[in-house]
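Budget justification, computational time. The allocation requested in the original proposal was used primarily to generate structure tokens for proteins on the priority list. As evidence of use, we reproduce two of the resulting records. The first is shown immediately below.
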Amino acid sequence: MLYQCDVSLSLQNFLSYLGGSRLQRLNRSRHQGLPGYALLLKVDLMLPDFLDSKHRLLQILQYSMRFEFAKSSPFLGMLNKSIIHEGRDPILVNEELGSEEIVVLKESSAIYEIDLRTVSSRSLKDIYNDFKSMAENIASDQSQHAIKELDRTLAKVGNVMDMAGKPFTPDSFIAMMEKIWIDFDCDGMPRLPQIVVGPDAENAVLAMFQKLDEEPYKTRMNELMAKKHEEYLERESHRTLVD
């Protein structure tokens, strides 16, 4: 580290300021552009490293990025998650078809470039917004991949309804519910699936749900849920428990 000072400073005070630092070189020379003489000192100084503060800041940043990720893609927040450790490739088990499929993992990443010429002038808020943008990009990439995989899997088992441009009606919704498994809680309440729609279809779907509370759709839905409850109980009674 190179220190430069005007000779008008007291050499004794300056060395006292350096404290116990090891003086490697002391050279008095004429410094161009400054009146008088200048001292050029090369010393070893141990700058403080705030490890605890940096670790805490990293934890806050990681938690915040998880929050931004979930906010950017509520759809991903609905999905079950599991941690995959080293070992064999993950296997997707299709209980309905009784088949297994090796899952091909897809990497999602984002690049963060640091310009050393401007890093000192950037605020913590600027850096946070950079990481927020990365989280949003990764969430968007994973959401699109998840939806494509969902379409592929549903088409494979035949649980796809193509509306062919027609409006989504209560009849369409009931027909869709008839094609899927529905589980129930200990109180006999159905665990209905989450519905993911684009912004263009949101109003139409909300209007459809309002019609489900009207007759004859309300009675048809109650009858369907009663049927699904019986199927659930039958399915559970044949489960094989593993010790």
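The second record produced under the same allocation is shown here.
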Amino acid sequence: MKCLTMMLAVAMLTGCSGFVSKQRAIGGSSSEGSVDDLTLASSADSISLNTTVPPPFQSSSIFSMQTLLAGLLNVYAPEQLNDKLFMGGWLGEADHSRRDDRLYVSQLVNGSWQAPTPVQWTNADHVEGYVPGYHANDPSIVHRSDVNWEYMYYTGLPNQFTANLAQIVSYNQVGFAASSDGGRTWTDGGIVIGQNNGIDLSGAWAPSAILNNGEVWVYYHTGAGCNFIDCHLNGDGEPTTPLAPRVLRSRLDINGWRMIGTNEIKNVHGGSLNLTNVNIQHAFGRFWLAANTPDLLKIVLYVSDDGLNFTPFDGGDGVLINGGDNMVLTPGLQVLSERSVAIQFGFAPKGQMSGSIQQWTFSLN
């Protein structure tokens, strides 16, 4: 089966966070997009911006586009913590040959992001950037100002469930780590949201965390559910009847790991929010959620007053970035003001891997 076919199949199932690297491991091309590719793909002919209708905003306009990192093999899921940019995937061929996803961090020095290096662990059994027994990706960071600690939440796919596509899209979970030195080193605490996410057995994929009301709220999307339903695999071993991705929120104790409860996030019509790779922020009296559409070709922006019921920012489809044939992967969201946001994302030109991290800044009108 051709790699692009698999990429699209996975996109239709759940979105690629935690899987872009793995789908390439199954026979994909290792070519990466160049700066020229990105410039072309960023033109009106390929990536378009959405400007639609009513509440709470009416339209968006872009006022800056920047390449933060380039020359990467396959890296995405950017998450910024002050002068550090965390991400996951494969930095180069050495990581690619090992196959396991790896966690990285880039340092901002004199206005420029430096080459990423693997995350450093204090755990004696951990190799830098890797989590033993898991493919680890999609880092999300929150800062506890009362004790000056950082918490990290990441996707953990157990290594024993990487034999076929049905397993890869069904067994993702969320792990937890903590840092007391500003994110320079981390102590891994293991899985905190397992296959049973508090609602069903569809797991938890691509977490995004915030602190709210003395709790940690972790948002994520669910898996295909092939571990507890019959997904009717086709001749290539692809699930043909998976569950649609849904966005859930799990509330954790302020200690970062004890589960309190889980809720399903709803759309404006009261139905499931069928998005992937969500990134949540709470700022200026509003919850903001950036996410991929399940095909990974668009990035949307939704807003909410309560963190449970979300509506497109523009009253339309909520699309900020339309990648055309190019994947715009696992957005990181920064809310700059009441009417401006920055979106960081991995850019994968058509048929290629995510060779760069981009940042586009928007005004909302």
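A brief technical remark on that second record: The longest helix spans residues 3-13.
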